[in-house]
Design brief:
It is a single chain. It is built from twelve helices and seven strands. A seven-stranded mixed sheet has the order 3-2-1-4-5-7-6, sandwiched between helices. By secondary structure, the chain is of the alpha/beta class. The N and C termini lie far apart (50 Å). The protein is 46% helix and 19% strand. Helix 9 runs antiparallel to helix 12 and helix 11 runs antiparallel to helix 12. Strand 1, helix 6 and strand 2 form a beta-alpha-beta unit. The chain has a single domain, classed as Rossmann fold (3-Layer(aba) Sandwich), CATH 3.40.50.150. Bound molecules: S-adenosylmethionine (SAM). The site of S-adenosylmethionine (SAM) has 24 residues, from helix 2, helix 6 and strand 2.
């Protein structure tokens, strides 16, 4: 009798249980549940595409010279940073394809959901986004409802290492700046399980440069700032090879990532204090921004 009661209680509590599997993952969830940085929210508000990654490409520096009106200058800087982060989401989405509306894609560590919307708008595909933050999953779901695409784009409060999503059903999957929160072996095993044979995996990520030696001071500061654990470049390829993911395209985006940081550093209304650390880490060669595209074989 006592045992049955205990089982019933456990089952009844399941829907509210956190998908975090360790104290570390609980701390990561706490971080993202509490996160309200203007650099994430104000940029997203422009067109309701909320990204929590950085940006790529040349910046329009003229936004800094606009001294007609301080509010207008601020808005132009915000819009320019959003354009750069959107360029990153588009670059990643381009590498997922070709895809059709019949296809299903998986967004691992989806944040407030912008990447899944970008993929859906581009290909008409169905998307499943997974985040360890209940608040983000709820926010992203509400955005999809407002757009009227919630039947095609769904967000789940789950662990990307153990999604519970069906095996072999996904034509493409990705991590946009979310690999540094998990063990790569476990992550790529889950992507390999979800992807159909011939499916496509894409990541854009910061990694530390093996040729530097070990993680630099700046890389350690970034880890402490975001409660993450940046992997060395080599570890990506080792873990992919062990999990049936064969790289087909690798691009060093480090130079393309710098203008975003140089501009953000001058955006007084958006800085978080980590800007100089990223710039130094990129410039001293200890940190790299990579795009890796792989086929699931
Ligand atoms: C820097 S944000 C990137 C968000 C999104 N990919 C984007 O580009 O906007 C990192 C994300 O990883 C998620 N995350 C970290 N660990 C996770 C885990 N074990 N399972 C699911 N999501 C996780 C966080 O909740 C957060 O949404």
């Amino acid at each position: 009798m006592t045992i049955i009661d205990a089982v019933t209680t456990t089952t009844a509590q399941l829907p509210n249980q956190s998908p975090a599997q360790s104290t570390y993952q609980t701390r990561v969830a706490d971080y993202w549940n509490a996160e309200e940085n203007p650099v994430n929210l104000e940029l997203g508000r422009i067109d309701d595409l909320y990204h929590h990654h950085y940006g790529l490409g040349d910046a329009d520096w003229s936004v800094l010279d606009d001294d007609s009106d301080p509010a207008r200058r601020r808005d132009r800087i915000t819009a320019e940073l959003h354009r750069l982060e959107q360029a990153q989401a588009e670059l990643l989405a381009r590498h997922l394809g070709p895809l059709s509306p019949a296809d299903r894609v998986f967004d691992a560590g989806c944040g407030r959901g912008g990447g899944s919307v970008v993929a859906h708008l581009r290909y008409g595909c169905q998307a499943d986004g997974v985040t360890i933050s209940a608040k983000q999953a709820e926010f992203a779901g509400e955005q999809a409802r407002k757009r009227g695409i919630d039947d095609r784009v769904r967000y789940h409060h789950r662990n990307m290492l153990d999604t519970g999503l069906p095996s072999g059903q996904f034509a493409a999957s990705w991590n946009n700046e979310s690999t540094m929160y998990v063990e790569l072996e476990l992550l790529f095993a889950e992507h390999a399980r979800l992807l159909r044979r011939g499916g496509r995996y894409v990541t854009i990520t910061g990694c530390y440069n093996d040729t530097y030696g070990r993680a630099s001071r700046e890389v350690s500061l970034i880890n402490a700032h975001y409660i993450c654990d940046i992997h060395p470049r080599s570890e990506y390829f080792r873990a992919m090879a062990r999990n049936r993911l064969v790289p087909t395209h690798v691009e060093d985006l480090t130079a393309a990532a710098l203008p975003y940081w140089e501009l953000r550093k001058q955006a007084d209304h958006l800085v978080t204090g980590i800007e100089d650390t990223f710039i130094t880490a990129y410039e001293n060669g200890s940190f790299q921004y990579l795009l890796i595209v792989a086929d699931r074989v």
